[in-house]
Amino acid sequence: MEKKLKILFDNLCCSQCKAGFDEDSIEIKRREPGLLVTHLVCRNCGKSFGVAFLGLSGLDIKEPLEVQQGPEPINYDDVIDAHRFIKNLDEHWQNYLPKN
Ligand SMILES: [Zn+2]
Q1: pLDDT per residue as tens digits for the range 2-52
Q2: Cα(81) to centroid(ligand 1), Å
């Protein structure tokens, strides 16, 4: 599954140092059924690009996502908020995912 994740970030590079992302740049923060919480970090300069929620049910990734640069590096509170967010998701959770 992580190999598929790499495709998402394949054509992106760090806005700070222009280094490309690879599998090691994507950290899995949490796994839920059909949903991954990932944290994208530049391995070259350490810049954090925040948390991305990825739906995995019937995943068929062909096009890389646009990654929104987060305003702040992740911290403990962000992880807790993400956890609460996921717990509150219902069957319409895909509406919260970025549209291609
Ligand atoms: Zn960088």
Answers
A1: 666 666 677 788 999 999 887 788 888 888 877 888 888 999 999 998 888
A2: 26
3-state secondary structure of 52: strand
Q: How far is the CA of 56 from the centre of ligand 1 (A)?
A: 27
How far is Cα of residue 5 from the mean position of the Cα atoms in its chain?
9
Count of domains forming the chain: 1
Measured in Å, residue 45 CA sits from the centre of ligand 1 at 4
Distance from the alpha carbon of residue 14 to the mean position of ligand 1, in angstroms: 5
Beta carbons of 74 and 82 less than 8 angstroms apart = no
Ligand 1 centroid–CA 1 distance in Å is 24
Range of the domain at 46: 2-96
